[in-house]
Specification:
With 123 residues, the protein is an alpha+beta fold. The protein has 2 helices and 11 strands, in the order H-E-E-E-H-E-E-E-E-E-E-E-E. Strands 3-2-11-10-6-7 form a 6-stranded antiparallel beta sheet. The chain is elongated.
Amino acid sequence: MTRTLKRTMTLTLLALSLALALATSAFASSHAYSFFYAGQEHTHSSSYINGPAEVNDGNVTITLGGGDYFPELKVGGVSADRSFSGGLTTFTFPGDASDDIDIQLNVAAGPHNTWYNLTLVWK
């Protein structure tokens, strides 16, 4: 009897762990977005967007293309995690797709070497 109970509990816990793992990955989603500047869509900034944002577990991940021109991005004054590979810059920061996100993007490209106050607007 005890052996059967242990086996049943083990299988139940294993099934529950698997279900939770699958449910967690189901919360990740992709969302299209664009950048707005001074209340209007800024097509030049948005042209560097490389694919949709990934929203997962309270974090947003965006990828910008065109080269290593984006040394830093801040949300609420806090620097986002940054990586650069293959001409793409990826930033990860806290947030979700329930509301637009104000960001500060540092651009260092030719004559542009400044911070831009942009709003990430979900489409």
